[in-house]
């Protein structure tokens, strides 16, 4: 079987996913550092895999190469798979860690956050209007898609204003799978120190925020890893969702017209964006708890598996004209938020942010247009995330 080398820079993640689908529903990939893993691209296999107890996310328990010392802290993705949080846990331990944050993402709590999302959106659009005055070119990713999710998650976590800039820089670097192991480790240490200081402050003076809740329920190491996970996962997906949806609407004026006419809902726009431009492509890593068969391939106990969450949305076996952006289509199946025990708890909040921010943007700036609709808008670095790295535009 051909082993597909994943580009650590993420330069062509959608094309890479198509190549993997062509290889078969279960394929071999090479990760940074030469580590090989299985990947699953077929939604019919992915869904059951995500609830299969024979597959774990706990590298400390179930990754043979970590246990025998083959994988060391010098591996570029080491921090991705070894942090002590619900992201890398299994079974009862996962349930315990997830409970510490579950209350922040209930349907009721999400509804209560709507006013805060509306305030963050309004202030962001005010700053965007000032930056784009007199026809100046603005970057919609930097000035629209990024500020809203990062402000909302920082408020939820309780991040002090004076460290938000440093946390953003560290969070962006953490998502970049092309950095060296040394850079990744240095970044993890810096971000860990920032969060540890915040956790300690919340232990001494708790507030009505997620860090205070986590600090009370978990150990220091668990609390730092959990807050780091919430910071990263709580904004990165939504930033890419907002940026991709904005680009798609501005490059498909007939769809935007249908939305404005009430013929297509904003909820449908969000789901179709998640399908055709998934904000997350791959999530490292899962591990076989025992020998098993998957899609005709024999997976050995301890083998690493990387779920290709971005692949099903553009699968021609699932969708007609899968590359076409059409929010009116009947089937908008995707796995943008994962599934099973590790399903993203922040999905309702991400949807709320998108369904508040997108209509507000296009209502505030009816003449909004990209400077180069057919131009290269770049790609966020790394193969984990997917989205344009820049969106130069004029507001009118």
TrEMBL record:
<dbReference type="InterPro" id="IPR001128">
    <property type="entry name" value="Cyt_P450"/>
</dbReference>
<keyword id="KW-0479">Metal-binding</keyword>
<dbReference type="GO" id="GO:0016705">
    <property type="term" value="F:oxidoreductase activity, acting on paired donors, with incorporation or reduction of molecular oxygen"/>
</dbReference>
<keyword id="KW-0408">Iron</keyword>
<keyword id="KW-0560">Oxidoreductase</keyword>
<dbReference type="GO" id="GO:0004497">
    <property type="term" value="F:monooxygenase activity"/>
</dbReference>
<dbReference type="InterPro" id="IPR017972">
    <property type="entry name" value="Cyt_P450_CS"/>
</dbReference>
<dbReference type="GO" id="GO:0020037">
    <property type="term" value="F:heme binding"/>
</dbReference>
<dbReference type="InterPro" id="IPR002397">
    <property type="entry name" value="Cyt_P450_B"/>
</dbReference>
<keyword id="KW-0503">Monooxygenase</keyword>
<protein>
    <submittedName>
        <fullName>Cytochrome P450</fullName>
    </submittedName>
</protein>
<dbReference type="Pfam" id="PF00067">
    <property type="entry name" value="p450"/>
</dbReference>
<keyword id="KW-0349">Heme</keyword>
<comment type="similarity">
    <text>Belongs to the cytochrome P450 family.</text>
</comment>
<dbReference type="GO" id="GO:0005506">
    <property type="term" value="F:iron ion binding"/>
</dbReference>
<dbReference type="InterPro" id="IPR036396">
    <property type="entry name" value="Cyt_P450_sf"/>
</dbReference>
């Amino acid at each position: 079987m051909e082993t597909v080398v994943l580009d650590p820079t993420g330069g062509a993640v959608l094309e890479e996913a198509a190549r993997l689908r062509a290889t078969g529903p279960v394929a071999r990939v090479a990760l940074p550092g030469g580590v090989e893993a299985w990947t699953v691209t077929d939604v019919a296999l992915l869904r059951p895999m995500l609830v299969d107890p024979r597959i774990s996310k706990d590298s400390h328990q179930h990754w043979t190469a970590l246990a025998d010392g083959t994988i060391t802290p010098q591996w570029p993705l080491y921090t991705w798979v070894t942090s002590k949080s619900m992201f890398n846990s299994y079974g009862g331990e996962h349930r315990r860690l997830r409970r510490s944050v579950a209350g922040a993402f209930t349907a009721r709590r999400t509804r209560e956050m709507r006013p805060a999302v509306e305030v963050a959106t309004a202030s962001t659009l005010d700053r965007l209007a000032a930056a784009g005055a007199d026809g100046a070119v603005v970057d919609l990713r930097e000035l629209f898609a990024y500020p809203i999710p990062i402000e909302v998650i920082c408020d939820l976590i309780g991040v002090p204003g004076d460290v938000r800039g440093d946390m953003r820089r560290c969070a962006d670097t953490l998502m970049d799978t092309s950095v060296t192991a040394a850079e990744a480790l240095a970044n993890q240490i810096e971000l860990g120190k920032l969060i540890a200081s915040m956790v300690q402050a919340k232990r001494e003076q708790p507030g009505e925020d997620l860090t205070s809740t986590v600090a009370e329920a978990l150990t220091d190491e668990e609390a730092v890893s959990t807050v780091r996970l919430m910071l990263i996962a709580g904004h990165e997906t939504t930033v890419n969702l907002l940026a991709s949806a904005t680009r798609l609407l501005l490059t498909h004026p007939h769809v935007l017209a249908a939305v404005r006419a009430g013929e297509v809902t904003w909820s449908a726009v969000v789901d179709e964006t998640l399908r055709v431009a998934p904000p997350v492509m791959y999530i490292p890593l899962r591990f076989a708890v025992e020998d098993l068969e998957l899609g005709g391939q024999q997976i050995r106990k301890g083998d690493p598996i990387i779920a290709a969450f971005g692949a099903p949305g553009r699968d021609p076996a699932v969708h007609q004209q899968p590359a076409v952006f059409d929010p009116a289509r009947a089937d908008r199946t995707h796995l943008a938020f994962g599934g099973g025990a590790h399903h993203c708890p922040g999905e309702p909040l991400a949807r709320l942010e998108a369904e508040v921010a997108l209509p507000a943007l296009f209502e505030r700036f009816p003449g909004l247009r990209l400077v180069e609709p057919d131009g290269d808008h770049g790609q966020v670095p790394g193969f984990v995330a997917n989205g344009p790295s820049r969106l130069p535009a004029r507001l009118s």
